[in-house]
Design goal:
The protein has a single domain, classed as Rossmann fold, CATH 3.40.50.10320. The chain has seven helices and ten strands. Strand 9 and strand 10 form a beta hairpin. The two termini are 25 Å apart. The chain binds zinc ion (ZN).
């Protein structure tokens, strides 16, 4: 199993902050499992309640929200995630506003992660068939705005400091779905686990086998030796 971090200073505390239940499994599920296997503490923050993730009008919104939380917890358990925090914002209308930034800063100062994994705020489109969900962009934006400068600067949100939440600066930020990723994690050994975690989000897929087929194609790449491998890729920012 590859470990691309500096072994002298392992990334011990990991926080993945995503817009919807299931985003983390797509973006970084196998990477998360690799890190939790290596002894890291991984936490998820899911910003929205996922209440638009359905086309079946016979299911009520509270039922759907409850189902999606249950599915997210089951997926997180497979990946060794210790805690899942649901922020409860409305699906589809996520806004990187001052209050959400404040709530995130509070969690970042409390959890004190070495690494945050987030979505790409710059991605409007991918290829010629996919418009990126606006929540994904806004999730990425509110995360980077919380990371810098607010989380590490005591002048931001003095009420949080008064509550005992000291400033915290993360060591690394990894951004998923970056157009030119510079950090690739070989997940070949963990592809089945990634798929198993994705399969927990049963409410999100009409056909789980089709989803699995797509994941196997989408994350497949040939390495330099011409072998078929699977990778999760990131833009990696290092601050220390
Ligand atoms: Zn999503």
């Amino acid at each position: 199993m590859s470990n691309n971090h500096n072994p002298a200073k392992p990334l011990q505390s990991i926080l993945a902050i995503m817009a919807h239940p299931d985003d983390a499994e797509f973006c970084c599920g196998a990477t998360v499992r690799q890190m939790s296997d290596a002894g890291a503490d991984v936490t998820y923050i899911i910003l929205t309640n996922g209440d638009k993730g359905n086309h079946n009008l016979s299911i009520t919104v509270p039922e759907l929200v409850k189902t999606r939380m249950k599915e997210q917890r089951a997926a997180a358990e497979i990946l060794g995630v210790k805690d899942v925090i649901f922020m409860g914002e409305e699906d589809g209308f996520l806004q990187p506003n001052r209050e959400l930034r404040r709530r995130l800063v509070r969690h970042i100062r409390k959890i004190k992660p070495d690494l945050i994994i987030c979505q790409n705020p710059e991605m409007f489109f991918s290829g010629d068939r996919y418009i990126n969900h606006p929540d994904h962009r806004n999730a990425g934006l509110v995360v980077i705005e919380a990371v810098f400068p607010a989380a590490g600067n005591p002048m931001f949100f003095p009420d949080l400091l008064a509550e005992g939440y000291e400033p915290h600066s993360i060591r690394e930020l990894w951004i998923c779905m970056a157009p030119e990723p510079d950090h690739k994690i070989d997940i070949t050994d963990l592809l089945d686990v990634k798929i198993q975690a994705l399969r927990q989000h049963e409410s999100q897929f009409d056909d789980l086998d089709e989803m699995e087929k797509w994941v196997r194609e989408r994350w497949s790449e040939e390495n330099e030796a011409g072998e078929q491998r699977y990778y999760e890729s990131f833009k990696r920012m290092k601050f220390d």
